Amino acid sequence: MKLIASILLLFSLSACTTSSHPVIDKQTSERLDEILQQQVIPAHNKPLGERIANISAAFLGTPYQADTLTGSDNVPEQLVVNFNGVDCFTLLDYVAALSHASSRDDFITQLRLTRYHQGQVSFVQRKHFFSDWFSLAPLNARDITDKLNTPTVKVTKQLNLKADGGKYLPGVPVTPRIINYIPANNINKGTLKALQTGDYVGIYSPLAGLDVSHTGIIIKKGSQVWLRNASSLKKNMKVVDTPLLSYIKTRPGIVVARPR
């Protein structure tokens, strides 16, 4: 019986964790090389926000596609690289990793560090929540929500715990975390002025167990502030630039993280 239990334990662990060797198709591989040559390497010495703007622009028009990553509590996690379709979170993954990369191999390393806590390719270690980006090492960004000269609201969340007691992500532990957000009605000219191109934005979710419901990247063009995001709206279904104010006027509020 002990032997059987040990075998089952090993199987369970192997189902959650795998090597960091990337899974990448030919089309994505070619597009990665193109972005590296046209956007990443030439902009190596430019400010981080400008690099993020240029790199993310290369994804404009990319189809929206959910569930492109491989891994669950009983399926081995894989380091997936898929530029053929992105959701709001994988878009940020790829852009953040590319913004710190100096080569193809370095991008793979940066993606692993961006997507996973301690760089460990594991479903449990994946940074599933937006606030993981500024809470779990290595940090992808720092939370600046309460530093934008705008009144915030502080809420204690039990991330991954549904109101009915279930979990959004089986196998992932519940994590208590304090979330600061700026209510949409509090956003003013001062807020917009304090935002910077390249800032990461999460749309606050009032649902139990969630910190945000959507993510995007701040792009400032003159006096206009845009949210560059992988939109699942029927009229879009691709990566687009959306005027930030018009987008958030019917949303609860925002959480803002500045890239590191």
Automatic annotation (TrEMBL):
Please verify whether the record's keywords include Membrane.
Answer: no
List all membrane-crossing ranges. none
State one Pfam family annotation.
AmiA-like
InterPro entries according to UniProt: AmiA-like (IPR010846), Papain-like_cys_pep_sf (IPR038765)
Under Gene3D superfamilies, the record lists: Putative xylanase like domain, putative xylanase like domain
Keywords on record: Signal
Residues of the signal peptide: 1-17
Task: Spell out the protein name for this chain.
Answer: DUF1460 domain-containing protein
Q: To which species is this protein native?
A: Pantoea alhagi
